């Protein structure tokens, strides 16, 4: 582990200085596309401004014989597209033990490093993986003459990665955040599921049996489906909060089940995640809606702030006690709402419509 004194020193001569704070640009939706798929790639320019992040995926879901085409496709798209102020460009490179990862990093940083905001690293096992990418990025940034550092995002999708989650989160000032990778994680843990994220009807608890009843009553005992991902998401959120980086939910593979997708996204939002992946255009609006505070929550948060005056003590509002701690939760909500409204005019309008100054307008 690096000494705190040199944690923020560049890891190569000529590399840009690491950032001391992770930029908090909106990243509610990280939209995946395969740059080797012509139909998908053709849709990318029109998606600029509609998603917070466009991610050129080079890893799983790209066929082995299309890896080079995907890398070249991403370079071409990055060079031809103006991503503007409200959409970032990220990539997911191949895993560090694959034959492609080194060329992915070398090509992308030297060709489009000035456009690339974040590199997502899959199957991270421990801080040593981040240290390797950290040094290599510094060398490549120096070679390419980049003036700002490219950030790193780890996917939490191995059992060892989960065991090392705090060390991974704090491994480098480049760490931007972390996503849950439920599909690979399930396989690595030898879970007996065959899905990409979401719940499972077999993972449940059942209501206690009434005494002295027949089999028909037993059959009707209520069951409650449990959340397979609660433990891992909660650990990831704590590790990210401790190190000042951002946690995300990952893929939801049942594209047709938009209702369960929204539920999974909302669970992650409520637990502290700031965004999620979208794999298909139909998931984009769901992610944006879920990961933006509702106008009603924003209005309530404003009322609490107003009622709490100097922020100390306790007050009653609608029959509920509010104090310093509920105020802090409301401030988290308001800070996020303000940040999102700054780049999303539709949200800005929705939040303004709920503000105390607009109450009674038009009545
Ligand atoms: C599991 C662990 C992981 O690693 S998850 C991350 C890796 N997987 C991915 O990135 C998957 C990305 N998505 C996809 O490959 C496709 O959306 C899949 C799921 C295969 C579905 O594609 P398809 O059968 O074409 O869907 P569709 O007919 O409903 O498509 C309608 C039009 O939309 C397009 N589309 C589809 N997905 C995207 C996308 N991610 N980005 C941009 N455009 C997309 C399709 O090409 C199709 O276009 P058109 O209307 O025919 O012109
Ligand atoms: O890469 C994502 C996953 O779920 O695996
Ligand atoms: Mg994976």
UniProtKB/TrEMBL annotation:
Keyword terms of this UniProt record: Lyase, Magnesium, Metal-binding
InterPro entries per record: Aldolase/citrate-lyase_domain, Citrate_lyase_beta/mcl1/mcl2, Pyrv/PenolPyrv_kinase-like_dom, Pyrv_kinase-like_dom_sf
HpcH/HpaI aldolase/citrate lyase domain sequence ranges: 30-195
Database matches in SUPFAM superfamilies: Phosphoenolpyruvate/pyruvate domain
Pfam families (UniProt xref): HpcH_HpaI
Any GO molecular function: lyase activity
Gene3D superfamilies recorded: Phosphoenolpyruvate-binding domains
Superkingdom of the source species: Bacteria
Cofactor(s) required for function per UniProt: Mg(2+)
Name of the molecule in the record: CoA ester lyase
